[in-house]
User: Fold these one by one.
Assistant:
Number 1:
Amino acid sequence: MMNSNVVNDFVVKFANTNGTGSASANNMFAKAIMRMGIPVSAKNIFPSNIQGAPTWYEVRINENNFLGRRGGKTEIVVAMNAQSFVADLEDVKDGGYLLYDSSKKLPEHLIHSNINYLGIPISAICLKEYKNPRQRQLFKNVIYVGALAALLEIEFDVLKTLVGDQFKGKEKLITPNIYALELGYQYATNHFSCPLRYKVERRDLIDNRIMVDGNTGCGLGAVYGGATVVGWYPITPSTSVIEKFASYCERLRIDPATGKKNFAIVQAEDELAAIGMAIGGGWNGARAFTATSGPGVSLMQEFLGLAYFAEIPVVLVNVQRAGPSTGMPTRTQQSDILSCAYASHGDTKHILLFPQSPAECFDMTAQAFDLSDRLQTPVIIMTDLDLGMNDHLSPPFLWNDKQKYDLGKVLSIRELDEAQNFGRYTDVDGDGICYRTLAGTHPSKGAFFTRGTSRNTKAVYSEKSEDYVENMQRLEKKYRTAATLMPKAEMSSGLSNAQIGLVYYGSSGQAINETKHLLQEKGFPVDLMRIKAFPFGNEIKPFIESHDMVFVIEQNRDGQMRMLLTNELEIDPAKLNPVLCYDGLSISAQEISDIVCTTMAKKQPKQEVV
Amino acid sequence: MSFAKSKFQHKKLPVNDLGLTYRDYEGALSTLCAGCGHDSISSAIVHACAELSIEPHKIAKMSGIGCSSKAPNYFLNNAHGFNSVHGRMPSVTTGANLANDDLTYIAMSGDGDSASIGLGQFAHVVRRQLNMVYIVANNGVYGLTKGQLAATADKGVKNKGGDLSLFTDIDLCTTALQMGASFVARCFSGDKAQLVPILKAAISHQGFAFIDIISPCVTFNNHPGSTRSYDYVQEHVATGAVTDFVPVKEEITTKIPAGQFEDICLHDGSVLRLHKVKNDYDTSNRYKAMNDIEEHKQKGEILTGLLYIDPTASTFHELNNTTDTPLNKIKQDLLCPGERVLGTINDSFR
């Protein structure tokens, strides 16, 4: 066993049972680390189940800000679930620690010599201290957090303050929670040598960052972006996007004079209706959106095609999960890239935005409404379960009060008065974006019939080939205009001599700095390019062409972004090496680095035999 | 080849309160079959809106897919329209209505659009009590795909090609009553005298107004043996009451003939006067209305007229407590909480 101390660089994994109230205690643990100024990330690995199935909460503490999932075995496992106990025991690293409920004696065959056991009779303590069965269950979680505070040297005052914050307005709960923390803390202090080999030490490495999930970012971004109309259908992992939007609206969007709502949210009967409502709202000049995941996207295809062809603004947040079909509803993936980029039958192309942090979820959702109004077309924000539902250390949400909504080309009554020969689908400015009018604006000008059928520039139904082709070509032109309005890919080319380029997008960004570090250690300096949007800007192809070896990192089986790059930029597929991690768990730097190294090893030129 | 509608207007055409004639409420030239019942519906809508003096541009015409859904193009040229996708008009109308409830929403659907592919959306838009007029032009067949039986076709009838309807039909009035519609009527497209007052009442009604209009398909469902043909419907119509619509501004001076009548005051102060043909006719009893529909059906009759009305019903926006300003007109300063608030929100995540 190793004896050297490890400070601020280890993983603590909590193995719990779904529905036992462990989430808030585990979250308190992670947040306490953050409040001590130490970078931390938390991954909730939960089942598609309400109560009873195993669930894990993995907290990575790393002062280098390597905050993607680390993978590998774990330094400290808190094993509170009998069902998964054996597997959790196997997950402990050599020399690591297993904290468990020792109310019942562990059978001999579960005692391993290569790990340390921290037995705390948690159930027995709760049985003695609490009468209420629910409290006996809930405070188990708080007791182990208290014990960890002693074992890892988490500042107890930080935990106490957190409890106060967590139960603000429910003061009755503060004292018993602090008492439970103390029970755990005292037990650990009295029975174990504290701190362990692994411990935390206060730092000042958080800056102004916040700890929040991406779905909150999207929901709040929609509030700031001016969304007023929502149709939605519950689906994991996107449900909390709308729930957050609703809760912020209830706080921030009630007319103080009347007490009435400046928003309308309808829980629809299905995803078809959900996006139908959003499209109806967008057509009528409100900022409207919906949120869903893969199965919902499949159902929304026809409507996305209508919104593309009839040119109606609508925003869709797609929190991706593991497909196909029902797949793994509570696991993460980036596997809807192609189905969203080309959603619906016929020649359709949609705008995709790829946020990598909760702050970007906020920014890009707010920005999506401007883009959608400007371009009169659907905009899809491509997040995923990992980004959406896990807490991340993120830059703060930012808004500039000088920012004005871009409502795009909507003719006012005055402009219509002056307009000559209005045609809804006439490309007046040559950018492919036409002027639209809203119902009820003008008594005699600007009315038109919105349709999913072919029409001429005056919005009159037409089956003439030339009208159809002209319209389709204009839509293509509009798409080229869209490419100029998209957020540019982010380049990090610190190493001018790097021959390897890593291309990535979305939540894979969490693992990228560590990946770069690992590859650098192995003698592979790399340049980075993060794709932030589709359609692709002009900056993407030159990056790919300027590197000998390009890797496209993504969380799906088929290399969907690689296909999109190949298809849209006419890049030789051989130039793009896939790095595919799609097991449903958050992507890790180790996985990426291993694949890159393996590929590089195969590509080494063979020595010529003379 | 172009189809242009004559713009000629007779100088003596009557004008409404806005100074508009019924011609100002017309739409494009219909491309439906000559004699299609749907054109009679379009004409009735034109007259109803003109007589109500509604500004045409304050109306939104909504539809899905099918012959019936083409019809909004043939009335109210100065109103925006939305011909959406098959069976999905209710959700689009819901969103449009959420965005702006200052408009009058007149939606036109068909039996395929509402009773088959769109049955789910139909049921839910009724439940939500959206303030709209929902018209189904019901001919019992799919016209654009050439005569397949619709879900509203009576069990046991045959289509033009000889296919037998094997299953129980869906009665959309009964469905609307079950789902909580606050205005339900059934009409015959060939009876303009009945249709126009009911349309006017439906438009004036605050809440979900449903009108199932038997609208014969001259091309695919007008053959002997059809229960949706002109001849069959005319011979089997039963009417519970004759409806007059008295606008809010008019004094009620109509002489009431001997017999029973009932005045129903609508939300805007206008009056719906029912001259009862049947003594036990009762438009305030949802369950009796369902029963009456079924009783007539058992006798081979189609009960038409206003079947049910609740003039006090709440609309979606009232239930949702939405602000009086249409959501699409609220400015950024009221929608965006701003930097300072965001700073506080950020602090809650530290």
Note: The longest helix of chain A spans residues 465-485.
Number 2:
Amino acid sequence: MTGVRVAGVGLTHFGKHPERTGRDLFAEASERAFADAGVDRADVEQLNFGNFMGELSEHQGHQGPLMAEAAGLTAPATRYESACASSGVAVREAVKDVRNGEADVMLVGGAERMNNLGTAGTTEALAIAADDLYEVRAGMTFPAAYALMARAYFEQYGGSREDLAEIAVKNHDNALENEFAQFQRAITVEDALEAPTIADPLGLYDACPITDGASAAVLVSDEYAEEHGLDAPVSITGTGQGGDKMALQDRRFLARTPAAERAAEEAYDDAGIGPQDVSVAEVHDCFTIAEVLAVEALDFYAPGEGIGAAARGETTRDGDRPVNLSGGLKAKGHPVGATGTSQVVEMTRLLRGDHPNSDAVPGEIGVAHNAGGTVASTTVHVLEVDR
Amino acid sequence: MSDRTGEGERVRDDGFDDFLDAVESGEGYYLECPEGHGSLPPRRVCPHCGATDLEETPLPETGEIETYTEVHVPAPSFADDAPYVTAVTDFGGARLTGIVRDTDAVTVGTEVALDVAETETADERVLVFRVR
């Protein structure tokens, strides 16, 4: 089985670009990825593309071939949809295809256009990642779903809105130097606590923004990298995916995410590492409480222990294991179908040393955790850099 | 929520609408498998163990609020309902998600009864919990 290397990565600015189409965003991200990789587009054997709400936001289905065209490829192309984990799944399937010899060169990525729908339209479009019969018809929105989990967490383990605010402050700080981030501005705990309530106990600063953007990565086999003399020091050495019941009401736990626990275990086993070997992580912090659930699912903390990690300085830039050095979904932004691949892009830059926060990375192994819906689907990837 | 899809009147959803009818007439039920796992219709298999012989079992008179949130930023189909409280409740055999009506005194552990009402925005039927 061959190893899988990240030959090149590309992002658009994540932010408000309501006038830009998904195809234009992905064309830009993929152009950057090819320039970074030094790989000929003609060598690409397949595109795996993540998108969630294209039918609603752009009246556009069948985005695989459309996006291949935008990227300048004639290769077969497939769209992956797994809510906010869409392009995490696209990455996982690409890793499998390179490993099993189906392809030596794959383009993976994703794009999402959201701001043209406005806040109400986006709230409605995102809600369909929840169960329509049992949840959406009962007034569930995504902030509401995570608020239900946050209150369940507080009830079971303790924790406070201040603890969550510390996570928002940390991730905003991390985004300050990231040119691709939606919010390059610092906030304070007071700012977060005084912000308008979205769904209590979550306020505006507990939530990621509505974001337009795209991400892309060129993945190649070890053999291809060697034959073509590519400078590709980062490998994806582990992949895992987990699932859970669609509706919160059918879950065994309301304050834990077993889908992510299973994905992490599978990815660690695949890479032959354990959580103690991981020195840096990009996790799916669509809401501040989601970062808590993620660091616990990744087994960095026992259930109930992750809530204070940011406040204690353990997951901050100068902590032992920084989390979301990109700014995370919270400050970098969350164009949902692009997010999973963008985490791999950011981790690649962090590990190989060309990210503005690379100096904060304390080791050679990172993980990317991408969650769909209320964590009914999750992918986890392990990335390692040759030193 | 016909205005969500632009497809005109919503068609009936077998199973789920039967369930709402039953709750409305005070005869709410859930589906129970031989292992004792509960879930709501429509189902052909138990989501927890895959058993296929599901039996309609009466819901208890009351349940308990397990977690809740007051929603201030709603989807358009709940625009006129906001702010409203959405809760996940434990009715013994099964958990249900709905809207808590007619009270400000919601807390985890509050005892509630089950009912069906209409949303203010779209006049759609919705499961509601009323504090006992």
Note: Chain B has a mean pLDDT of 92.
